[in-house]
Amino acid sequence: MQYFLDGYRSGDPRIQPVAEGRSEVQGPLPEEVDVLIVGTGPAGLLLAAQLSTFPEIVTRVVEKADGPLEVGRADGIACRTVEMFEAFGLAEKLTTEAYWINETHFWGPAPGDTSRITRLGRVQDVRDGLSEFPHVIVNQARLLDFLLEYMHNSPSRLGVDYGHETLEVKVPENPDERVTVRLKTAEGEKTVRARYVVGCDGAHSVVRESIGRVPQGHGEDKAWGVMDVLAVTDFPDIRFKCTIQSAEAGNILLIPREGGYMVRLYVDMGNIAPDAWLTKEEVLAKAQAVLAPYTFEVKETAWFSVYRVGHRVTDKFDDVDDDQVESRTPRVFIAGDACHTHTAKAGQGMNVSMQDTFNLGWKLISVLEGRSPASLLHTYNDERHVIAENLIEMDTRWSRAIGAAQDSDDPEAAMKGLAEVQRQFVTNSEFTAGFATHYTPALLTGDDRHLHLASGFPPGRRFHSAEVIRLGDAKQVHLGHVHRADGRWRLYAFADMVDPRSPSSRFNALMDYLASDASPIRRFTPKGADPDAIFDVHGIIQQSHLEVDWADMHALLKPHKGPLGLQDYQKAHAPVLGTDQDIFDLRGIDRGAGALVVVRPDQYVSLVLPLDGFDALDAFFSGFMVEPN
Ligand SMILES: Cc1cc2nc3c(=O)[nH]c(=O)nc-3n(C[C@H](O)[C@H](O)[C@H](O)COP(=O)(O)OP(=O)(O)OC[C@H]3O[C@@H](n4cnc5c(N)ncnc54)[C@H](O)[C@@H]3O)c2cc1C
């Protein structure tokens, strides 16, 4: 954590000073805002948290419920989501409270005595080296609390306007006019005019309907009884995530929960009428039958629901029709369940929803801060729609595999089906961990032509962190953790082999270029702003931190910033030499040539370039950035 840049303050450094013109309490909903977020699920609050650090952007969040969510709903948090939470400084809190899924176990009818269930397999949940963070489980309500607290501690002290139901969104023909949003509140109807509206209002989205977008796909045939319970049992794997298939009684998905005692059961209740409801007693009886002969005595039910959702993707995630993309820019967006719904079996609901708005957030910031033209916003639909399609495809395949094992009357076929479930679990693991996202070459993503210089950082994939030693204080840190959710670009310059103090070092020549008036850093950073206000450059040398002093590094890596002109000591790094954790080996950096890795504000790699790829770097940023006035 870096703080005190603006001067010393006592107290918790996570609580930012209130921005000028803002107050501790945000006050009544104004008639005009920059961004109106509808809905406080994971998608809405992740976006709100990101925008809250920009007090110059007037953001408000409306929610039809009277207060925050308290129990239930989703609980699976993929490794990728924890990486994203690290950018908000929330990963430690999350992983401390959460249950960690280390292994998944597969139970089925015991060979030779199918009246019993037995453990048929166990698989490591996340393969080694995929991420520095685990796959965890925590209540959706608790995760939302973290985001609400972050917003509250931000310079804009952003809160939620509860009891505000969005009734309708109207987009005027004139692009200079704001979007009108009609709201129902306890005091009557209100109208808010917003530059941008983001519908994070769930599967039955009113925002989606208002802009004429339609979810396409099919309904779910099965109903799942979901219960969070505190129970006493002799089932030995109660603290492992398990898929449990009995020969006669059906199947359940068991997910241990945070705190060490609670478990969640997803109980397959088969096909029931669309409007039928089930009692928790019916669901529990079924779960007990599946677990037999093990006993399962519920002492308290914390939450119960019947969850039934189809596989659907909305046709487009913004208000601009395909034939108008050249002439109009989007002003209304939808995200999360408003765009895609699928079963809970792969635990993707919260994760993909928050990734949607992490993708959108920095783009809205860039446009509203005047750094990029509004056409940048087309890339939200372009990038996220295909991700949603892939998600639905994976979830359909996975549901089918589970279904085939479950619906077979023949124990041998069921056994084969279970083997297929286990195989697919392993095959899908990159997807379920959140790492299958691969943006294809386009405005914000380069191609693979220089990938040989840094093979572990493919463009379009998330920046895969590894450890380094900070030159300024010899602290071993994760390089990717310098990345904050602050809308800035990261440029990681991996040095060539030459001593960085030598005039023939290409690393140093790159630093000279980046510091020059010709570089995109100078051209696109507003005059008077900190030198790293838009681009945060980090240098990683190949020599030991014992050989090269921080003081010897290029001035670009030691900028003076803030009102006091303090110097930043955290931008120069060395590898962890003599171990298998050397970042140059781990991420396939060409030691002779070095490499420049350009990372987007949402942690995805845009480009890998040679250290002298000045023109390509300039052309890339000139494609979607505008010089400040
Ligand atoms: C009842 C329920 C049970 C679920 N159970 C599970 C589960 O067991 N396992 C699982 O993995 N996933 C479950 N999910 C799905 C999971 O919660 C979602 O995938 C995830 O929360 C998606 O996040 P989101 O932000 O897109 O939408 P949501 O979390 O649905 O959030 C939408 C928000 O918008 C608000 N809203 C809706 N309409 C309006 C309006 N007109 N005006 C203002 N506010 C509005 C809602 O009150 C809500 O707070 C459940 C969802 C629901 C609704």
Number of strands: 28
Detail the poorly predicted runs. none
Name the assembly state: single chain
Q: List the ligand species.
A: flavin-adenine dinucleotide
What is the helical fraction, as a range of percent?
10-25%
**Count of DSSP-assigned helices:** 14
N- to C-terminal distance: 32 Å
CATH superfamily of the largest domain: FAD/NAD(P)-binding domain
Largest sheet: 7 strands, mixed
- Class from helix and strand fractions: alpha+beta
CATH topology of the largest domain: FAD/NAD(P)-binding domain
> Beta fraction of the residues?
15-25%
User: Which term fits the overall shape?
Assistant: globular
Whole-angstrom Rg = 26 Å
Reported CATH architecture of the largest domain: 3-Layer(bba) Sandwich
User: Class of the largest domain in CATH?
Assistant: Alpha Beta
The average pLDDT is 93
Strand order of the largest sheet: 6-5-13-14-15-12-16
In short:
With 629 residues, the chain is of the alpha+beta class.
Secondary-structure map:
Layout: E1 32-38, H1 42-52, E2 59-62, E3 76-77, H2 79-87, H3 91-97, E4 99-100, E5 103-110, E6 113-124, E7 136-137, H4 140-152, E8 165-170, E9 179-185, E10 188-199, H5 206-210, E11 215-218, E12 224-233, E13 241-246, E14 250-256, E15 262-268, H6 280-291, E16 296-307, E17 311-314, E18 332-334, E19 340-341, H7 349-368, H8 378-407, H9 411-427, H10 429-432, E20 467-470, E21 476-478, E22 489-494, H11 506-515, H12 520-524, E23 535-540, E24 560-561, E25 566-567, E26 572-575, H13 583-586, E27 595-599, E28 605-609, H14 614-622
Helix pairs in contact: 1-4, 1-7, 2-3, 7-8, 8-9
The protein binds flavin-adenine dinucleotide (FAD).
